[in-house]
Amino acid sequence: MSTVALSGIAKSYANFVALNGVDLTVPEGEFLTLLGASGSGKTTLLNVVAGMISPDRGIVSIGGRDVTHVPPRQRGLGMVFQSYALVPHMSVFDNIAFPLRIRRMASAEVKSRVEKILDIVQLGHIAHRKPRELSGGQQQRVAIARCLVYQPPVILMDEPLGALDKKLREQLQQEIRRIHKEMGITILYVTHDQEEALYLSDRICLMNAGEIEQLGTPQELYFKPANAFVADFIGESNLLACDIVAPGRVRLDASGQDIRIAQDTSGTANRLMIRPDKIAVLADGESRANEICGQIEEIAFVGETMRLTVRSGSQAFTVKAPTSRSADRKLGSTARIGWEPQDALLLEAKS
Ligand SMILES: Nc1ncnc2c1ncn2[C@@H]1O[C@H](COP(=O)(O)OP(=O)(O)OP(=O)(O)O)[C@@H](O)[C@H]1O
Ligand SMILES: [Mg+2]
User: Fold this and answer.
1) Who is most buried in 82, 129, 157, 207, counting CB within 10 A?
2) Of 228, 255, 271, which closes a domain?
3) Ligand 1 pocket residue status of 208, Cβ below 6 Å
4) Same-domain check for residues 210 and 327
5) What is the DSSP string of 256-292?
6) Which of 194, 228, 262 is the last residue of a domain?
7) Is 18 close to ligand 1, i.e. is its CB under 6 Å away?
8) What is the pLDDT of residue 1?
9) 3-state class of 301 per DSSP?
10) For 7, phi and psi rounded to 5 degrees?
11) Residue 351 pLDDT level (bands cut at 50, 70, 90)
């Protein structure tokens, strides 16, 4: 059993609340990512799981055992951090074998385990090299292999790809995903990169100021954000300040225009979210249930799609439109944009 369960975890530094009562369960075999802006408490929470930080309140259990007061080494966790911390004078093979040798494993078993893991991280051909003879991505793979080799049931990773360039990062993301699937380990991963989180995770825990804003699958966070904070953090969105005026209808604060929505309109929601790719730039004769006329303030060509900023009064809309349909649009010209009621989501913005 390698479920990680956190209950009521709180941690303050002087008057500053770093974690404000976090409840989180990571089931066995899950890839769960802690995502959030800098300072939101991700590393603090990971260190509470690792045992490097003891919480002021709350319980940490791993595999059903309360480990809140158990020292880090006895928690049976593997850890990979942003700095690789490889031993410089040891070869790749010896670096990876190191955790097995300190556990006094027989040398034949060490050899077979290290060779297997070298295969998985695809470093067998350079096992004799020293860390300084490796690229950043290769070094990071050695660090991951060194953690995987003794088969910890739970691995904690804090921004392990943060120091790498984009291409290497994408390559290693693929590898981490493959290794997770192949080995069936539980991974608790930290990143502030939402694309990385969406790509890697079974579930994402979006943190803000020491609390969980939403916990769910990447699809849930993207398509059903719990509030305006989540909508703003995950993907791109237009968030329009509004008030509910009648069932199925809201009024935009900026223009006073009434907008039809498909949602039940009770409650205190005050932001209308529309993803840029749900807004169409309308051709003559085309119509939508909601339409707005504005000036094209910005045009950016991004390949198959174009990103337009269309301004109507004090409200700017970001629109992503297929290039094939919008290539002849001119800066400063007037455009009619529109969307259907079901393409917008009414959310709450916390003050
Ligand atoms: N030892 C400490 N003393 C005082 N404040 C601390 C300490 N450690 C962390 N903090 C504060 O707690 C908050 C959460 O820090 P944490 O390192 O968990 O953030 P993070 O989400 O990992 O951010 P980043 O993405 O920048 O790594 C921050 O505001 C930080 O300044
Ligand atoms: Mg951190």
Assistant:
1) 207
2) 228
3) no
4) no
5) --EEE-SS---SS--EEEE-GGGPEEPPTT---SEEE
6) 228
7) yes
8) 63
9) strand
10) -135, 120
11) low
Q: Is the pLDDT of residue 194 over 80?
A: yes
Residue 186 burial class via C-beta count within 10 angstroms: exposed 0-12, middle 13-18, buried 19 and up:
buried
For ligand 1, is residue 42 a contact (CB within 6 Å)?
yes
The pLDDT tens digits of the residues spanning 81-112 come to: 777 789 999 999 999 999 999 989 999 999 99
Which residues on neighbouring strands pair with residue 311, listed in sequence order?
295, 316
Examine the domain organization and report whether 189 and 283 are in the same domain: no
Same domain, 214 and 326: no
pLDDT at residue 169, as a whole number: 85
Residues 223 and 240 occupy one common structural domain: no
Domain check: are 199 and 254 in the same one? no
Q: Which ligand is nearest to the CA of 16?
A: 1
Return the residue whose CA atom lies nearest to atom 5 of ligand 1.
Answer: 13
Residues 145 and 30 in one domain: yes
Integer-rounded Cα radius of gyration of the chain: 25
Range(s) of the domain holding residue 163 = 4-228
Same domain? 178 vs 159? yes
- Answer yes or no: is pLDDT of 259 > 70: yes
pLDDT of residue 114: 96
Predicted confidence at residue 287, as pLDDT, reads 96
Which residue's CA is the closest to the ligand 1 atom numbered 1? 13
Q: Say which ligand is closest to the CA of 39.
A: 1
